[in-house]
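Async update (no meeting this week)

Hi team, since we skipped the sync, here's where things stand on the single-chain job. The sequence we agreed to prioritize is pasted below, unchanged from the tracker. I ran it this morning and attached the output directly underneath so nobody has to dig for it. Comments welcome in thread, and please keep replies under the output.
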Amino acid sequence: MMSFDRLAYRESAREAFEEANAKLTREGKPCEPGCVISLDRGYPLVCTPRITERAELTTSIKKSDDSIVAVGDWVALHRPHGHEKAVIECVLPRRNEIARVKRIGRERQPRRQVLAANVDIVLICQSLTGEGIDEGLLVRQMVAVAGCKATPVFVLTKGDMASDASIAATCERIRLIAPEVPLFVVSVDDEASIDELRGVFSPFTTGLLLGESGVGKSSLVNALLGEEALATGDVRASDDKGRHTTVARRMIPLPQGGLIIDAPGLRTLQILDMETSLKLAFDDIAEAALGCRFRDCTHGDEPGCAVRDAVAPERLEAYRRLLSSGR
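Output:
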C-alpha cells in the first residue's frame, strides 16, 4: 500500500495546491492534496495524507481538453457531503508529461495521450536476446524522453542470455552514440546488476518504465522490489516478443526509496516536437552547429561544418538519421 509520505510532494506542488484550494474553498469546495497512483478501466486511484481511494472527475474537467488524468498527477480532492466518491476538482500544473499520440474512433483521429506526469527519469528498456538491440528505437526514445524534460536511462535486460563479447560491443556502440545517458546491463538473477540500477533512485525519484512487451519490465520491477509483485508473461520463441502482462499504469514504491511507474508495453514513444527534442538530447551538436558556415547545415558534406570534427561520427550519424526521418 502506498504511503503519502513516500510521494514526491515538492514545494511547487504544495504552492499550487494551496492556491487552488483557497479558490475552491471560497466556492464551498475545501480540498486536500492527492496524487494519482493508478489508472485502469475504472476510476483513478488517489493517495492523500489520510486515505487511498477511488475518485471521479469533476464535470468541468470531463468537458475540458485536458480530461485525461495521468499517473503521477497531483490533484485537489473534494468530498461532497452525501456523495459516494471523492471528486477531483482540478489537476495541478505538471512539471512535465510523458505523452504519445494515439488514434481513436472509427475516423482514427489523433489524440494526445499523457502516459505519466511529473516523472524524473525514464528507464528505456530493451532486451539483449532475440534480434538484439534496436538502435534506432533506442535513440528515438531517448530523444522523445529528453523532449518531455525527463532524464533517459538505458536498461539492457536479460544480460545473462547474451555473450560477454556481444554485450561489450553493444555497450561500446551505445556509449559512442549517447555518452551522457546512464547505461545498465541487468539480469533479474544477478542481484549485483539490480543493486547497481537501484542506485538511480533517490528517496523521491519517480521513474517510468518504457519498452515493448517481452523485454522483461515486470520481471525487472519484481527484482527491484525484491518480491513477485507483478505478473510476468511468456515470451514467444519465434520473435522473443511477449504479451502485455500489465494492464494498468500504476506507481509502485521501491523499498530503498523512490517510485516506479509500470505501464503497458510501448513499441514507440512519438517525438512530439522534433526540433526542440533534438536540441535537448543532442545539445553538444546544437552548440557546435552555431559555428557552421551555413545556418541550414545538415552536418553532412557541406563546407565549413563545425559539427563533424566536434562529435563522434556514430553520434552524428544517429542524429542525422533521426533528423532526416522527421522531415
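Quick observations from my side:
The first helix runs from residue 11 to 26.
The longest strand covers residues 31-39.
Reply here if anything looks off.
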